[in-house]
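User: Just a sanity check before I run the rest of the batch. Below are the structure tokens for the first item. I only need the designed sequence back.
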């Protein structure tokens, strides 16, 4: 992601279809968004990537906590108008980048309870459900559970070679 992508990514992030599944759900201002991007640029443990098809971006993936031998957290969202099947393409590109290019040991994803598409998405990519953090976050006047998914590099390599 580059500074010229800020407006497009902010529109995706603030879209209700995306925002309702995030841990912070208020409408993000351009200023906040810029600060998030600047902080990320200066954080060697973080990467924010756009996923493209023939040069056209259709989703965003971010990795946090990148370090040798570390378990890395990821997050992602599609452009709200992304074509059918885009989730699969986003997942395959992100995992191949994480495990083949970056040689990460493990990827972890946290999903708000009720986000059926993301649960299914993680399962389809081979992630295991490793835990449930009960009433972990307070969102829109209620406590919500977080589901913890994990995928090891060894598991990804096994499935990507078959
Ligand atoms: C998560 C996301 C990337 C998945 O993209 P996708 O795979 O293209 O999404 P789909 O609409 O194809 O749904 C994925 C699967 O969940 C299923 N699903 C979707 N909504 C569902 C619902 N309400 N109830 C049950 N299953 C549902 C779909 O049928 C599909 O199942 P399949 O793989 O067996 O066909 C996309 O939905 C997204 O960007 N969501 C908003 C942001 C977000 O939630 N990010 C993750 C935060 S943890």
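Assistant: Here's the designed sequence for the first item:
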């Amino acid at each position: 992601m580059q500074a010229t992508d800020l407006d497009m990514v902010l529109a995706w992030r603030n879209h209700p279809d995306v925002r309702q599944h995030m841990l912070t759900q208020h409408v993000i201002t351009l200023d906040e968004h810029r600060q998030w991007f600047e902080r990320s640029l200066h954080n060697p443990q973080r990467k924010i990537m756009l996923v493209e098809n023939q040069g056209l971006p259709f989703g965003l993936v971010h990795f946090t906590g990148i370090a040798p031998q570390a378990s890395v957290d990821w997050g992602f969202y599609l452009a709200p108008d992304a074509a059918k099947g885009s989730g699969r393409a986003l997942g395959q590109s992100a995992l191949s980048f994480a495990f083949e290019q970056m040689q990460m040991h493990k990827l972890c994803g946290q999903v708000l309870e009720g986000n059926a598409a993301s649960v299914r998405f993680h399962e389809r990519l081979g992630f295991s459900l490793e835990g449930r953090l009960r009433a972990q976050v307070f969102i829109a006047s209620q406590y919500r559970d977080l589901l913890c998914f994990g995928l090891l590099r060894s598991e990804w390599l096994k499935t990507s070679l078959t």
